[in-house]
C-alpha cells in the first residue's frame, strides 16, 4: 500500500474515533446497558439492597417498600461507601432503586453503575406496582 493511502486510512480511523468519543460524552450514544426493570419482573427477583431515593417527606406520606433503605439521591455518593463499610452491601450486591416514577431512580442507578455496581436496576414506575396484588 502506498504511503498516501496509509495516511488517508489512518486519518479516517482517527476521525471516526473522535466522532465516537464526542457522541459518548454528549450522551448521543450510550454505552450503558439498560438498567430499567419492570415491576412484573422485579416482583420475582431477589435484591440484596433496595434503595428509596425519594425525600423523607415522600416516604412518610406515600409509604415505602418493605426493607428499603432511604437514601436521598444527593446523598448517594456519600452513603453507598458507608453501606459497603457496614457490610450491608458490596459491589456484587444486586440493587434495586426506586422513586415515584420520575427520573431520580434512573439517575441514581446510573451513578451506582458508574461506581462499579454492575447488578443495579431501577424501576421507571412507582414502587407500589411491585407490591402484592398490584399491577
Could you walk me through the main structural features you see in this protein, from its secondary elements to its overall organization?
With 135 residues, the chain is α/β, with parallel strands linked by helices. It folds into 2 domains: 1-31; 36-130, Rhodanese-like domain (Oxidized Rhodanese, domain 1, 3-Layer(aba) Sandwich), CATH 3.40.250.10. The chain is 42% helix and 12% strand. It contains 5 helices and 5 strands; from the N terminus they run αβαβαβαβαβ. It has helices at 3-26, 39-42, 56-62, 76-86, 104-114, and strands spanning 36-37, 49-52, 69-70, 95-98, 120-123. It has a 5-stranded parallel β-sheet with strand order 1-5-4-2-3. Helix 5 links the parallel strand 4 (95-98) and strand 5 (120-123). The longest helix is centred in the N-terminal third of the chain and has 24 residues, at 3-26.
Quickly describe the structure:
This protein has 135 residues and is of the alpha/beta class. The protein is built from five helices and five strands. It folds into two domains: 1-31; 36-130, Rhodanese-like domain (Oxidized Rhodanese, domain 1), CATH 3.40.250.
Characteristics of this structure?
single chain; 135 residues; alpha/beta; Oxidized Rhodanese, domain 1; 5-stranded parallel beta sheet; Rhodanese domain-containing protein; membrane
Radius of gyration: 20 Å
Mean pLDDT score: 82
Binned strand content = 5-15%
Strand order of the largest sheet: 1-5-4-2-3
Give the CA-CA distance, first to last residue: 63 Å
CATH architecture of the largest domain: 3-Layer(aba) Sandwich
CATH superfamily of the largest domain, by name, is Rhodanese-like domain
Structural class: alpha/beta
Residue runs with pLDDT of under 50 for 5 or more positions: none
Percent of residues in helices: 40-55%
Give a quick account of the main beta sheet: strands, pairing sense, barrel closure.
5 strands, parallel
CATH topology of the largest domain: Oxidized Rhodanese, domain 1
Name the CATH class of the largest domain: Alpha Beta
What's the SSE pattern? HEHEHEHEHE
DSSP, total strands = 5
SS field, number of helical segments:
5
In total, the number of domains comes to: 2
* Shape, principal axes of CA atoms: elongated
Amino acid at each position: 500500500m502506498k504511503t498516501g493511502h496509509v495516511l488517508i486510512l489512518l486519518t479516517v480511523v482517527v476521525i471516526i474515533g473522535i466522532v465516537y468519543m464526542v457522541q459518548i460524552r454528549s450522551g448521543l450514544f450510550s454505552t450503558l446497558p439498560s438498567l430499567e426493570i419492570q415491576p412484573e419482573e422485579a416482583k420475582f427477583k431477589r435484591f440484596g439492597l433496595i434503595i428509596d431515593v425519594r425525600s423523607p417527606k415522600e416516604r412518610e406520606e406515600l409509604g415505602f417498600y418493605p426493607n428499603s433503605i432511604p437514601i436521598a439521591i444527593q446523598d448517594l455518593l456519600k452513603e453507598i461507601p458507608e453501606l459497603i463499610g457496614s457490610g450491608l452491601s458490596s459491589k456484587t450486591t444486586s440493587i434495586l432503586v426506586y422513586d415515584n416514577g420520575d427520573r431520580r431512580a434512573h439517575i441514581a442507578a446510573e451513578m451506582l453503575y458508574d461506581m462499579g455496581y454492575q447488578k443495579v436496576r431501577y424501576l421507571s414506575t412507582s414502587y407500589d406496582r411491585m407490591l402484592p396484588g398490584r399491577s
